[in-house]
TrEMBL record:
Membrane topology: Multi-pass membrane protein
The keyword Lyase is annotated on this UniProt entry: no
Taxon lineage: Eukaryota, Viridiplantae, Streptophyta, Embryophyta, Tracheophyta
Entry protein name: Major facilitator superfamily (MFS) profile domain-containing protein
GO cellular component: membrane
Membrane spanning residue stretches: 26-47, 67-88, 95-118, 124-146, 167-186, 198-217, 311-331, 351-371, 392-412, 445-467, 488-505, 525-543
Species of provenance: Panicum hallii var. hallii
One annotated GO biological process: oligopeptide transport
Cellular localization per UniProt: Membrane
Length: 554
């Protein structure tokens, strides 16, 4: 397949105009990409959701070792997208990177299926598991490839591109809902072999779906060479010229100009000069020595310098996502600890605490079309922006909404502790049925729903922001960078729980998070998280005010 630059589809003399044929192709391309993503995540969540039970029941690993095994694997799965993203931006291009890693995931699922069905040694299972961590690392590349299909020079298509990010995230949640419920039930109630065999079949389907859409993929960002090398060249060149004065007039800085607005970096538009991080401008100052002995390690273009500036500007926004992720991950930890003490029965049917996370998924599935079809059009009329909100404003709303979720969880915990005191259940849960507090677990639903709403604003906003504000030749890599904030948020949450539990349990006290939370103060922990969210939002407002949006020369 011949790889062509994203600008190659503009019809001569008709820039910005779209034909109905092009509209259909863009729509078909998005359908193939969204279907592919949904199948991928159905298979992935089928493995990840019930992995701890497979390690315990089938590989006979202890509970602690199994939990650590899952954590290590998920951590690896959060880092490997950077590998795929780097290959896509630097050498292979997005199309071929997706095709390659989809094939790797097929091999991974086959190994897992054979291992589960034939009860092979654990080494075979772990080999398949970590192959999956590599092969399943496609989100930043796939979302960048999908967004590439829209013409950013056309305002209407920019609006559709923004909608694409919403529907991409929705496809993830549909996949997680099916994989984390239906396929987990197959694993637990039928067999592990079949429970892993269906994801293996879905992985084959993802390859077929992606390749079937090849003719519809009309816009391809060519690989621009190693972005790490270009960044290193700017740093080295600026350091070598630390005594050189950068001119006040940015037009005197070195740039390789072209009539079509493209830079010397393949497939990348020229970036306009910005005044932040002025020290780096020294790398683009052309001296007599540069003219005598040209070297990319002594003289860089303005676009190359601005690439590094773009990344540096993204880092504070990226860091603000860590606290958000730390609060968000309470769904899988303290929310479940809280729910484990509440009455899970509806009639004769028992609802495990972990299952309530389905309300978060359903909330996302409700909020995505509501945001895309109702909120954005209203905001568009009020602000005049084609996307309704600025990307930074959208993420900021999500930070506030998640604070409300922590407050809701804390309020419920206060009520739960009152029930504990009323029934004298401080040591164990000894409610009417001998196990649970006489308080329905469904009181937790509001906090899950609010968390889902915060995802639609912040997580999707991050996807769109990191793609849009990244240099053309670094979009996959910057999209992958945004995912690492979620991984770090998990680590921050674990560290926070450990520190708080130890600090509040001194002097023989039970502390906020003891083994029996009926004797603890989990409400105080939720208040602490709410305060951290508020503080994070305050810092985020300063970051948003300081941030300078990327500008291209055209």
């Amino acid at each position: 397949m011949e790889m062509e630059a994203v600008e190659s589809n503009t019809l001569p003399g008709a820039a910005g105009r779209r034909t109905s044929k092009r509209d259909r192709r863009v729509f078909l391309a998005c359908v193939f990409i969204l279907a592919n993503n949904c199948f991928q995540y159905t298979a992935f969540f089928a493995v990840s959701t019930n992995l701890v039970n497979y390690l315990k029941d089938q590989l006979h690993v202890g509970s602690k070792a199994a939990a650590n095994g899952v954590t290590n694997w998920l951590g690896t799965s959060s880092i490997t997208p950077l590998v795929a993203a780097f290959l896509a931006d630097a050498f292979l291009g997005r199309y071929w990177t997706i095709a390659l890693f989809l094939l790797i995931s097929v091999v991974a699922y086959v190994v897992l299926t054979v291992s589960a069905a034939a009860a092979l040694e654990s080494s075979a299972f772990y080999a398949g598991l970590y192959l999956l961590a590599l092969g399943g690392a496609l989100q930043p590349v796939l979302i960048s490839f999908g967004a590439d299909q829209f013409d950013e020079a056309d305002e209407a298509e920019r609006g559709r591109q923004s909608s694409f990010f919403n529907w991409f995230y929705l496809s993830i949640n549909v996949g997680s809902l099916i994989g984390g419920t239906v396929l987990v039930w197959v694993q637990s109630s039928v067999s592990w072999g079949l429970g892993y065999g269906i994801p293996a079949l879905l992985s084959v389907v993802t390859v077929a779906v992606f390749l079937a859409g090849t003719a519809a993929y009309q816009r391809h960002q060519p690989p621009g060479g190693s972005p790490l090398t270009r960044v290193a060249q700017v740093v080295v060149a600026a350091a070598r010229k630390c005594r050189v004065e950068a001119p006040e007039d940015a037009s005197e800085l070195h740039e390789c100009e072209a009539d079509d607005g493209m830079s010397a970096i393949q497939g990348s538009r020229r970036l306009a000069h910005t005044d932040q991080f002025r020290f780096l401008d020294k790398a683009a100052v052309e001296t007599a020595a540069d003219k005598a002995r040209p070297s990319p390690w002594r003289l860089c273009t303005v676009t190359q310098v601005e690439e590094l500036k773009c990344v540096l500007r993204l880092l504070p926004v990226w860091a603000s996502g860590i606290i958000f992720a730390a609060a968000y991950t309470q769904m899988t930890t303290t929310f479940i600890l809280q729910g484990d003490t509440l009455d899970p029965y509806v009639g004769g049917f028992r609802v495990p605490a972990a299952v309530l996370s389905v309300f978060d998924t359903l909330s996302v599935m409700l909020w995505v079309p509501l945001y895309d079809r109702v909120i954005v059009p209203l905001a568009r009329r009020a602000t005049g922006r084609d996307r309704g909100f600025s990307q930074l404003a959208r993420m900021g709303v999500g930070l506030v909404v998640l604070t409300a979720a922590m407050l809701a969880a804390g309020t419920l915990e206060v009520q739960r502790r009152r029930v504990v005191a009323r029934h004298g259940m401080y040591d164990t849960n000894t409610g009417a049925d001998g196990r649970y507090l006489p308080m329905s677990i469904f009181w937790q639903v509001p906090q899950y729903v609010v968390v889902g709403a915060s995802e639609v604003f912040t997580f999707i906003g991050q996807m769109e922001f990191f793609y849009d504000q990244a240099p053309d030749a670094m979009r996959s890599l910057c999209s992958g960078l945004s995912m690492t904030s979620f991984a770090l948020g998990n680590y921050v949450s674990s560290a926070l729980v450990t520190v708080v539990a130890r600090a509040t349990a001194r002097g023989g006290r039970d502390g906020w998070i003891p083994d029996d939370i009926n004797r603890g103060h989990l409400d105080n922990f939720f208040w602490l998280l709410a305060m951290l969210c508020i503080g994070n939002f305050g810092v985020y407002l300063l970051i948003a005010r300081w941030y300078t949006y990327k500008k291209t020369v055209d």
